[in-house]
Specification:
alpha/beta; TIM Barrel; 12 strands
Amino acid sequence: MEVIPAIDLKDGRCVRLFQGDFDQETVFSDDPLAMALSWQEQGGHRLHLVDLDGAVQGKPVHLEVISAIVRGLDIPVQVGGGIRDMAAADAWLEAGVDRVVIGTAAVNDPEMVKEVCRKHSARRVVVSVDAKDGLVAVKGWKETSSVTVLELAHQMAGLGVERLLYTDIARDGALTGPNLTTNARLAKETGLAVLASGGVATVEHIKELVPTGVEGVIVGRALYTGAVSLPEALARSEEHTSELQSQAYLVCRLLLEKKKNEQPLLKEITS
């Protein structure tokens, strides 16, 4: 399971919000590129960038800053915030961003999401499903739609989307642990690759996500406060994933052996 460090940009600085509230921000760095390079040096395999000002204004704001980060890193970058039309998606993907993260447009303009998948490949699209009390929030989390998390997930799967990012807004920045139940349901019921976000405060929380079947987890505040070490999180996640894969392999072997042993007995009974 991937562990992906996050950088949220507001007024050109790296910040973390509490439950998406712009009035409750903590500034962690005035140098986003240096922060991005730090996560890469610590072993990060991918970076998650959010243009918070773009999410509110409905258009990319930190194009210059994010473009500099993309050029300066060797690892892939995914970007979200204010991507609400084809022009914005095209601009980011042509600037070297590996994936665009689309939120509001998935609710208000699903055909746009379908077109981005068709034009650039579904591999390069992540649909962000951000929820308040089970309903999808839009426009920088300032408005709540009437669409449920699972409704939107199934709709996106039907359009050819391959990957979701699920955020439980009540847990975002709160360090109270991820929403294991909803992440597990999304991974199991939609068939989509799921990235979990919101609530991670410890390495143990990351380990708890592995059995849910999610593809990865995005970690923000816990990395910035030092509550979670990125190298340790990466190592423990890989270790726990390997353990579960080994257990699954053993179960399959046992079932196959059981089936083999039952076949001669079945022949004997029917002959």
